[in-house]
Amino acid sequence: MRLLHTSDWHLGQHFMGKTRQAEHQALIDWLLDTVASQAVDAVLIAGDIFDTGTPPSYARELYNQLVERLHDAKVRLILLGGNHDSVAVLGESKNLLARLGTLVVPGAAEPAAHVHVLPRRDGTLGAVIGAVPYLRPRDLISSEAGQSAEDKQRSLRDALREHYAAVNAACEAKISELGQPLPRILTGHLTTVGASTSDSVREIYVGSLDAFPTADFPPADYIALGHIHRPQRVGGHEHIRYSGSPIPLSFDEAAQSKEMLLIDLDPGGLQAVTALPVPRFQPLIALRSNLADLPAAIGKAAAEGSRDTPAWLEITLVEDDYLADLPARVQAVCEGWPVEVLRLRRTRASAARIDSVAQETLDELSPDDVFARRLTLETLDDAQQQALKMRHDQILHTITAPDANAGD
């Protein structure tokens, strides 16, 4: 069985006034070439398929195109709901998409309902998967009066561990029912202990549970995770992996190598994990310079762009933050180069902060962007900033969760 593991596509992302549509279209084209050249049996997207619970129409078109093209290629597609996805939006078409060979798992279900058999391209049985999506607090526990934060965290961890154990047991029962040895795959969209995050990852799991201990996962041949955008092994385990996002979703991911994971399994278990580098379809570059050295830095960055696809830049200026006309000076330096400055920063907290040029307006920013920029104006240590960010993310998620008041 050959599985291609990816996650966190964030179709429809609005990035500082820029659409990622062209990048995602190029990504789908690359993916189809890859599944053909690598003889992939199934593709798994482990959550955050869309960037919001109400994706724009072009994002839905890309989603449908992915389903259709993989169906034509006779490749099974597994789509898991993430914390950015709406259970209702993913669920509305799951029965229809099942007719096209696509398994959609929008949200939590009874353990046995998460278990599915994955065929190879030739129709023979390839693996059994316990397809667990992002799990919301109400999926796992009921609140109890008088519980402390520690009690809630303990209850969530216990409930999540029990849910995974039940799904794993259902996988074992399915394999026994089939009467032949098959590898077991488990999935998740969550933060685990020791995972390294980036600015574009919302630092929440469920309620007050910061991270799920790796040791609490049941034994499986491969555990495919989403939510963290940096590709990595978890806890040093070869079989527990984040694939990371296939495109950089924030400037602090600009220097990361993006990849998808090619997973080879047979009845004996995991045989190989091969990282497949994903091309960079849109140059995204974070620069740190002073004004004197900026022309050379811009020239180097411009080499990665073109007239049709200019490089998107975040520029952090050092030493010159006292100048009042920095945006004009920076724009003058960039004139004639195939670059666009999406964010301009100064380094000293004592100076007025300039976070963006290019005529950026408030309606082009997400709530996360606005909060992050407001936070930079405060003199707080790292622990205080992290605590405030976690509270902001929890409140924002409670308010904006697409199914918060829908009862889905």
Approximate strand percentage = 15-25%
Strand order of the largest sheet: 6-5-4-1-13-14
What low-confidence regions span 5 or more consecutive residues with pLDDT below 50? 201-208, 349-361, 404-408
The number of domains is 2
Shape: globular
Per the CATH scheme, the topology name of the largest domain is Purple Acid Phosphatase, chain A, domain 2
**Can you identify the CATH class of the largest domain?**
Alpha Beta
Termini separation comes to 34 Å
The mean pLDDT is 85
> What's the tally of helices?
10
Q: Structural class per helix/strand content?
A: alpha/beta
CATH homologous superfamily assignment of the largest domain:
Metallo-dependent phosphatases
Largest sheet, strands/sense/barrel: 6 strands, mixed
Radius of gyration: 22 Å
Helix content: 25-40%
Question: SSE order in H/E notation?
Answer: EEEHEHEHHEEEHHEEEEEEEHEHEHH
Number of DSSP-assigned strands: 17
CATH architecture verdict of the largest domain = 4-Layer Sandwich
Overall description:
This protein is α/β, with parallel strands linked by helices and 408 residues long. The chain contains 10 helices and 17 strands. β7 and β8 (125-130) form a beta hairpin. α9 packs antiparallel against α10 (382-400).
